[in-house]
Amino acid sequence: MKIARIETFTNTLIGFVRVTTDSGEQGWGQVSTYNADITSDVLHRQVAPHALGTDPIELAETIEVIGEKECKFPGTYLRRATGGLDTAIWDLRGKIEGKPVTSLIGGSPGPLRVYGSSMRRDITPEAEADRLCRLRDEQGFSAFKWRVGAECGRDVDKWPGRTEAIVPRVSKALGDGIGKLVDGNSGFTPGRAIEVGRMLEQNDISHFEEPCPYWEHEWTKNVTDALSIDVTGGEQDCEISAWKSIIGMRAVDVVQPDILYLGGMCRTLQVAKMAADAGLPCTPHSANHGLVTLCSMHLLRAIPNAGKYLEYSIEGPYSQQWADTLFVERPYDVVDGQVRVTDAPGWGVEINPSFMEHSTYAISQSE
Ligand SMILES: [Mg+2]
Known about the structure:
Enolase-like_C_sf; alpha/beta; 2 domains; about 40% helix; Enolase-like, domain 1; globular; L-alanine-DL-glutamate epimerase-like enolase superfamily enzyme; hydro-lyase activity; TIM Barrel
């Protein structure tokens, strides 16, 4: 069996990928979100030429070759594009075998606990506490993440005093028995991060994500070593060499690869295995309700070092709206604080034809 066609259906936010074999079998994947139109161009220019004519079963090797052939172009766009190929081929393999992807990688369908993930900093502590408590009460969410500091904020808060106000306010409102996580989004230098971390320790927060600029592994390690709570990170890191460094020095307590930023399931399984060998849990980054959350669900149901929960965006535009418009059936409904991986083959979703009609189409195919 050989890959004969690679097609993309894209807009600026989302780009789906359809792979077709010479025997007519098909699978669907997605390049990573945002600037998906540029990423789809990269897929056709720098990924597809190395993948057409290869056997889907040799995907891991094909992905290695793509990195080597495009060695002058390391970095996020190549990996985001490769993620589209990879996820389409996992879907194809699932459909051929009649199994969900999770079963292909040693897992099984079933439920997964989620944490409700806030993406907002323009929200007051009071309003954040109110909406998280509502999700706890109405849909049974048992864990939440909210934001402190400011993205790459150089120790300057979104507004003065917000971090000091929102941490105790939301933690107290949520009460006992709820998982409490915060995200610094690269906002702090180590000194300030440790100061914030001490406050988190005193307020029942168990997870401090990306306290320092993510590329400063030594800074992050200083914070990890200083605090008793879990320091976590890695969503942006898309090179295996960076992961070797992060895991090797134990810069974090929990690794958080993003399956589509990193280049797909093959490379994420590689990172998850490296983390497992080092005794570190893996809680993937999945900050929107495109395909990445579904891929993370299949991964978490399979790996031995799965973290405690799935990241589940609670923001309307990137969650409910996307889940409603991208797929024929919504794959992400939360019941009693859990989502469910079904036994449908591949990723178990069908892409909405109306999304495709309104997208930009491109094709690469074997001569
Ligand atoms: Mg994050």
